[in-house]
Predict the structure.
Amino acid sequence: MTTTSIRPLVAGNWKMNGLSDALGEAEAIRDGVAALGGRAPSVLICPPATLVAALAARMERSALRVGAQDCHWEPSGAYTGDISAEMIRNAGGTAVIVGHSERRAGHGELDRIVRTKAAAAHRASLLAIVCVGETKGQREAGLTLDVVRRQVVASLPEGATAENTAIAYEPVWAIGTGLIPSLTDVIEVHAAIRRELASRLGETGRRIAILYGGSVNPGNAGELLSLPEVGGALVGGASLRAEDFLAVIRAAMPETGSALA
Ligand code: PEP
């Protein structure tokens, strides 16, 4: 767990999964989190855009937060198929993922686009979860720290603070594959991100949550979430079933995460 953030954040990214019947799964997550009481981490679900409003309505008066998986950088306009940060806010969302590798790779999103999207999130008072991470080729070439540091620097807008921004370190090769980096590799990358944030942003950079993402599941969450500077998790596949997601959420509670030396 990070030494600097107060409460871990566990965020679920449902990607392009979920019709209206998925709202029942979210209710089971909400009830499971409520049963954990005050020690529960902060929990966020990012469903497809079609479900943001309905999910936010169902999660009203609960501790669960609802977010989106992407936003446009403009507040409105002729951008067919896109949604703005203001629309997410208006639908009841309080957060948005930006720069996910599936958007960087599949939609050609460069760091400067990610930065404008994070700025849009801030403009609409949303938490921006800014994703960074190396490809398999970059890791094998020994470029991981360079790539991740560059992405952090280039993707963060002016005015990023611990209150409006979280970073998600997601090795691209670990997403949806069942593979994860060694724990020492996770420690190394999170420490490098922390150094970069602290040197650029000072005090607030020491408090920005750094989440780990990439094949987090009930079996590995305890050890991943107990690592230094791991302030939570961004969870894809394992967030789709309440039982699995709740197990990851429980692992983020300080007493239940296993400790690494
Ligand atoms: C993700 O897409 O953000 C992710 C971490 O996916 P998974 O947990 O399925 O690897």
In short: Residues 102 and 172 are 9 Å apart (CA to CA). The radius of gyration is 17 Å.
